[in-house]
Amino acid sequence: MVRAGLRMLLEASPQIRVVGEAGGVASALALVRAHAPQVAVLDLNMPGGSTLAAIPRVLESSPGVAVVVLTMEEDAALAAEAMAAGACAYVLKEAADAELIEAVTAAAAGRTYVTPSLGAQMAAGSADVLATGSTFAGHRIDGLAGRGGMAVVYRATDLTLERPVALKLVAPALARDPVYRARFEAECRLAAAIDHPNVVPVYRAGEEHGRLYLTMRFVDGSDLRTILEREGRLPPARAVGIVGQVAEGLQAAHDRGVVHRDVKPGNVLVARRSEGERAYLTDFGLTVDPSSAKHLTATGFASGTAAFMAPEQARGDTVDGRTDVYALGCVLFRALTGMLPYERTSELDMLMAHAHEPPPRLRDVAPELPSELDLLLERALAKLPDERPDSAAAFGRDAYAAVR
After folding, report:
1. Distances (CA, A) of 209 to 82, 134, 175
2. Are strands 113-114 and 89-92 parallel, antiparallel or unpaired?
3. Which of 99, 139, 285, 353 could cross-link to 357 by cystine, CB 3.0-4.6 Å?
4. Rounded CA gap, 211 and 245, in Å?
5. Can you give the pLDDT at residue 5?
6. Candidate list 223, 262, 324, 374, residue with the active-site label
7. CATH architecture, range 4-123
8. Where does CATH 3.30.200.20 sit in the chain?
């Protein structure tokens, strides 16, 4: 999947057939879903968002697709970030005539490829990857906790306080972007201001050797997305128990004038405790503080996740706490049924469904569930914010009452 300028080069090879041309992040995701290609070639600077952040979404859109990153950036750290995000090849444009064919065929065969000069730098350790046992900003790195296109999260120990933490290290390409830096600083301030048992607390944030980082409580558990991928759907009491706790954490954020804007299973951490499961809301990277953060909106930054996005957010209208209630309703629907409220083949179609189609009926797909949950989700997924529960706390209370 490529831009038109590369089509002739690729199709000169008898091994390659180009099935689509994408002009940006959104169209690339849509075409990957539509064509399920063996290989997607992504420019590092595609319009419509961060390519590093888009790589995991491309991989989720079509299991089995291999991602090749094409770029002018001769930066070993960027190459390492791209590979950590899930790409299997990283090719410089200046060498594309000879190397792109080799990279695409290697990717299709399940192998990796990096422009040789960068590969040598990465092998020599010049890419900024934190090794287990090393130290960074007063923290000992104990292992990798997770990674994506925008950041890598390590299990670490704060050497001053001798406590375990999660250390989030931002991708170099994003750390160099002034708008992202401003959003990152806003995220840290907003998240640190929320003190609630169901919100992951932020301990520290800063910059070290040109890298942005923050540390948070380390939650020893799984995110809800992983749980649902493994188990499919949850019993009503368990689903409501997790979502109800998230509602309590959201209410604490809303009480401080903070709207999360990206409530989804991947941003809910679940840990086992002696009294049962404890759920935590995390990742306030898209939060909105209406009094101070309006100027941080910029073209090219994601504004949420299509599968859980309220109609007003999809349209770019004003958002408030009821926007998060809608997203939390989508999360509860997913947890109860194993399905998204609107299953569509493209993000655009999904957003249109959220904006215009009637709320899905829970009992149409899971008739054995309590009718009270069906009525609650019908209200939570209402198109107009005024027709939804007026607070996250009210949504949580009604959810608990529905399964008693």
Report:
1. 20, 14, 11
2. parallel
3. 353
4. 33
5. 59
6. 262
7. 3-Layer(aba) Sandwich (3.40)
8. 135-217
> Residue 271 is inside which H or E element, if any?
strand 268-273
How far apart (Å, rounded) are the C-alpha atoms in residues 106 and 83? 14
Q: How far is CA 294 from CA 182, 183, 291, 400, in A?
A: 11, 10, 8, 35
Q: Under the phi-then-psi rule, with left for phi > 0, alpha for psi from -120 to 50, and beta for the rest, what region is 277?
A: beta
User: Looking at the chain, which residues constitute the CATH 3.40.50.2300 domain(s)?
Assistant: 4-123
Provide the pLDDT confidence category of residue 193 given band limits of 50, 70 and 90.
confident
Residue bearing tokens 């968002």: 49
Residue range 250-288, pLDDT digits in tens:
999 999 888 998 899 999 999 988 778 999 999 875 454
Helices (H), 256-341: 311-314, 321-337
Class of domain 135-217: alpha beta
Please indicate whether residue 374 is annotated as part of the active site: no
**Using CA atoms, how far apart are residues 323 and 290, in angstroms rounded to an integer?**
13
In sequence order, what E strands does 1-106 have? 39-43, 66-71, 89-92
Task: Using pLDDT thresholds of 50, 70 and 90, give the confidence band for residue 290.
Answer: very low
